[in-house]
Structures are given as structure tokens and as C-alpha cells.
Amino acid sequence: MVESDKQGSSGESPAGNRQTEQGGESLEARRRRLAADLATRGGKVEPREEGRERRQGYALAVKLSSEFIAAVLVGAFLGYLLDRFAGTAPWGMIVLLLLGFCAGVLNVLRSTGAVSTPAPGQRNSSWKAKPDDE
């Protein structure tokens, strides 16, 4: 095809017309407006809340991962000690490592709020005897 066949009657390409119709303004107009905004601010960008949220998210990730890893390591260490002194190798390590893993998952779920800690009055409510209908 010839280049003149691709262009519309105004001299813009069909893709440019689509962009103007969909976006409301052309890329050049947005670029000029951005340059003017940056010039009025003096080129300095104000700190945003996104940075604070990002740091808080990072802090939460570090907290959750350290809780999980600590629980697994404590379970493995206690399993090693049990195997070493009781001579139960490798069963103490296996059992306590799995218990440490479960404790770590439970700690992470509690920290994120997915599993709530029961209130002291409600802790054993499901085990209480139900009154008879006599």
C-alpha cells in the first residue's frame, strides 16, 4: 500500500484518530500538559501515600515470614534435641518439624486475621455439655 492510502483526509493516521476518539486527547496534548505541570512544581514530586503503604506491606511480609520460619526452626531444633537425648531418630525431628510447620501456619493466619483468637469466655463453649430436654 502507498503511505497516502493509509492516512485519512486530515493527514493523521487511522490509529491516531482512534486514539483521539478513545482517549479524549492526543498524546502530544497530554505530554504538553504534563510538562507544564512539572514546570509549575519545579520538577519535585511530592511524597505519596503509596510509599508508606509499600513500606507497611513490606514490614508485614517480613513479620509474617519471620514468624513462620521461627516456628519451623524451633520445631526442628526441639526435634533434634529429642532425637539426640532420647534416641528416637528420626521420628522426633519429623514429628516436631511438622508441629512447628503447623504452628507457623497458625501464627501467620492469626496475624493476618484469617483465624481469630477465641475470647476467654468462649474458648471451650463447644465442649460444654448441652442441657437435656427432660
Automatic annotation (TrEMBL):
Transmembrane feature ranges: 58-82, 88-109
Region span, Disordered: 1-55, 114-134
Compositionally skewed regions (Basic and acidic residues) per UniProt: 43-55
Protein keywords: Hydrogen ion transport, Ion transport, Membrane, Transmembrane, Transmembrane helix, Transport
Signal peptide: none
Origin superkingdom: Bacteria
Compositionally biased region (Polar residues): 7-23
Annotated function: A possible function for this protein is to guide the assembly of the membrane sector of the ATPase enzyme complex.
Family of the protein in this entry: Belongs to the bacterial AtpI family.
Name recorded for this polypeptide: ATP synthase protein I
Organism (species): Pseudohoeflea coraliihabitans
